[in-house]
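Give me a protein, keeping tokens residue-aligned:
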Amino acid sequence: MSEAIAPLINSIQQLAHPLTGAEQDYNSLLELIGDARFVLIGEASHGTHEFYQQRADLTKQLIQEKGFVAVAVEADFPNADRVDRFVRGISKDVTATDALDDFQDFPLWMWRNVDVLNFVDWLRQYNDTLPDYSAKVGFYGLDLYSMYASMEAVLKYLEQVDPEAAKQARHRYSCFDQAGEDSQSYGYATTFGLTTPCENEAINQLMELQRHKGEYAQRDGRVAEDDFFYAEQNARLVKNAEAYYRSVFQDRESSWNVRDRHMAETLDHLIAHLNRQGKQPKIVVWAHNSHLGDARATDMKKAGEWNLGQLVRERYGQEAVLIGFTTYSGTVAAASHWGDPVEVKQVRPALPGSYEAVFHQVELPQFWLNLRHDNSAITGLQKARLERAIGVVYSPRTERRSHYFKAQLPAQFDAVIHIDHTHAVEPLDHLGQPEATEVPETFPSGL
């Protein structure tokens, strides 16, 4: 340890809250959370067991002790909808494994892993103990990659409640058929004038659905309200995804911004939906650190990019608590290139001078640190340092360029959880992944 950094390490050692596996580990973090209505819990990779496990454990406490009523995750809305119906006991799925079957696109291991399976199973069991449907905790997707699946969800809903409206919707959405149900091809073809954009059709279908809200949503109580909300959100997703896939090939607004604005918009609509049902909207959000840490405290600000964490903070202030994860070394489940099979890869020891390297020198296997405190440790951490982000692709040979960015951690998060040595998640599918059908704008990192 250099003399220059020794005082900082000593300060962190005095203020760090060790994590030992005891039930009381997060009591002080729950005190920090207090009456906050939104707790955003990140991850420094999409394939680390400890991040998923600790996030799930903390979420269970927030549900049981703080009255949180929803979990919103960085996943496509239709896929999460199937999980939601399972955990609330209104689907035909018998097991949590069945409920995760709609997650069939690369990267499978991000949501089809043992830690997610265990949490979904726990949530179903917890909900089964609650007195009625309205009290059950929901599970929702925030992302927008599912453009064509969301169209199908809208059509399926309308075929059940209004077959004539379903015919009109099918006609509107047929505009997208020219791209062969490939979202990337749609974005490319419309950007370069090969086909006509379907923006108006997507907008008109959403507006048409909303015009019938009173008729559709009041048919069978709470379940009908939920069904309409799912359909409306899928129609909204089609509208936003259409803009997103065009933005990928344009120089106008960053496609990253379109995506994270959609996630923030989805969260706002979920809040409104829960309010209408008489619930206090206390929501846990799961996503990568890069989406949940305040972008204004990172290199993203220079690039003109924002993220979900920033948008939530700007709107809800102290009612939101942002929690990040870091690790120094270990293993991670990741691919070498987009669409490749999942591998268990060695995570290189963090670069000298990075936040991860600083926390490694604290010499605690696991701890959490309150970043809201005004003390010497937080002052020392304010200096911009490197921070690591691993997505679904991990490239150790180009790690500095591919996986590090500059950040001011105390401005980025309200608390950070450091697990010095971590391990890869265990995928439910062990025989490799299918080739990617869509390459997002986060390629090659896949954040």
Residues 221-247 form the longest helix (27 residues). Confidence is low (pLDDT under 50) at residues 431-441. The two ends are 33 Å apart (CA to CA). Residues 292 and 309 are 4 Å apart (CA to CA).
